[in-house]
Structures are given as C-alpha cells and as structure tokens.
Design brief:
single chain; 287 residues; mainly alpha; 84% helix; globular
Length: 287
C-alpha cells in the first residue's frame, strides 16, 4: 500500500469517526438519517453537476445494477446503525461493527478479487478478533442478557459494512463506476426510499431538525466525503487492505465515546482499541 493511500484512508477514518459521534449524539432513528441524506443531496448536487459537465457519463444496465445494490445495502446500514445507537454505547457498537466488517472483507476478497492474505495478515486478523471480544465486554458482558442486543446490532452492522464494501469495490475497480457518481447515486437513492417514511413521521422530522440541526449538517457533509476518499483509494488498492486500515477510526470512536459521551470502561476499551489498531496495521502491510 502506498503512503498516499494510507494517509488518505486515515483522513477518511477521522471523518468517519466524527460523523458517527454526531449521529450518536442525535439519539434518533430513520428521520435523522433522512435529514442528513437531504443535506448531502443538496450540498453535493453542484459537485455532481460539474462532474457531468466535465465528464459526460453513460450509465448502462451493469452500472445501474451495482448502484441499486449499493443503495439497498447502504440504506440498511444507515437505518440499522441509528437503531443500534439508540440501544447501545458508541464505544461498544462502533468498534464491533467496524471490526467485524474488515474481517469478512479480508476473507471474501480472497475469493471474489483473488487477493492474498499472508501469514502476518492472519496475525492481524487474530488481533482484531481478540480486540473485538474485549471491546464487547468479554465473558462478563456475554453473561448479561440485556447486553446482547447492542452486541447483536454491532455484528449485524458489520455484515452490512462488508456487503457494501465488497460490492462497491467491484463497482469502482471492475465495472469502473466513478466514485463520485456511485457515492451520490447511493445518497440520492437512500433519500428517495426514505422520503415516504419521513413524510409519515413529519413531526419527528421537524423535532430532529430543531434539536439536532448541527449534527445533521455535520453528518451530511462528512459521511459522503469520507466514503468518496475510500472509494477513490479502492480503485488502485486491494480492498482487503483498505477495509482494515479504514478501521483505525475505531480508536477515534472509542475515545469520543469514552471521553465526550462519558461512556464507561475507558481503560479496557482503550486497550482493546489499541490492540485492534495494531492488528489493522499488521494486516494492511502484511504483503
């Protein structure tokens, strides 16, 4: 992996952890997702207009199929993430979700994109698995029935992350869909699909906008920008390396959850997050 790709992913990870922090602060559901999708749709529309003027693009059936699949997976991820944040801590759900995703990506990338996972890569995977277990509370947390719900959400979100990451990797590196186009089409598709829900819950939409306007704007700006950087990097970097390095955002998320949202278990989660970062780095540079 080139240094340019590495630092681009790190920048994206900072943005990703920040917008997840803002989403957690909103403590809302699908209506908040619709609000930040609306912000993204409006703010990035001029960028797309310029894109189509400078680079006229024809969208075929194959490209459209990948885009529709990406819309569905991203929407499921966004709504499930907000639901998860309503039942669990940021510093529990975020690390589990972001740790599970790259593990699955690294495994399936071997079969889908003929990518290799060497011995040091396996070591990195083991470190990530152990750190996820510690972050979820270990055996003590598993004994508590009420704690299984946020853990389940974290794992479910991780599966969705792996799904859209692998699909989008194929879109930008094999089908050659522009990262800008794929990202904006995904945002617009989610916005349209959630609009009926927002209409039915319009009072909640107005409440969310009144209470969490800054958070919605922040997520609306950072969410697409962070992912555009990742999509661009995936055009020339193996996804089995991009996905794990991206999860350095876990460290930022754990710190934000522990110290800014005053969630507990700071030392344990900090240690586990550090272990996960080491595993990510080992996995990323295992070739």
């Amino acid at each position: 992996m080139s240094l340019f790709a590495f630092f681009t992913i790190i920048l994206s990870a900072c943005m990703h952890a920040t917008w997840n922090f803002l989403a957690k602060k909103s403590d809302s559901g699908a209506t908040f997702v619709w609000l930040y999708l609306t912000v993204s749709t409006v703010i990035y529309a001029p960028v797309m207009i310029i894109f189509f003027i400078v680079s006229p693009t024809v969208i075929g059936w194959t490209e459209l199929l990948f885009i529709v699949g990406s819309v569905i997976l991203h929407l499921g991820y966004s709504v499930t993430l907000q639901k998860g944040y309503k039942v669990g801590d940021l510093s529990v759900i975020y690390p589990i979700a972001r740790g599970t995703g790259p593990l699955l990506v690294a495994i399936f990338a071997i079969f889908l994109f003929n990518e290799q996972l060497h011995f040091m890569g396996v070591v990195g995977v083991i470190l990530i698995v152990v750190s996820v277990f510690i972050l979820s509370g270990g055996f003590q947390m598993i004994r508590k029935i009420d704690s299984m719900l946020p853990i389940s959400y974290g794992l479910m979100i991780g599966v969705m992350i792996a799904g859209y990451t692998l699909l989008d990797k194929g879109a930008v590196s094999i089908v050659l869909v522009s990262p800008l186009l794929l990202n904006y089409a995904t945002i617009l598709g989610q916005f349209l699909l959630l609009s009926p829900v927002a209409k039915k819950q319009w009072n909640q939409v107005k409440t969310d906008w009144s209470k969490h306007r800054k958070e919605a704007i922040g997520v609306g700006i950072l969410n697409p920008l962070a992912y555009i950087l990742i999509l661009t990097t995936m055009m020339f970097t193996p996804v089995s390396h991009v996905a794990p390095v991206r999860e350095v955002s876990i460290l930022f998320g754990a710190i934000m959850g522990t110290y800014l949202l005053r969630e507990g278990f700071g030392i344990r989660r900090g240690f586990a997050s550090g272990m996960m970062v080491i595993g990510i780095i080992v996995l990323a540079f295992s070739d």
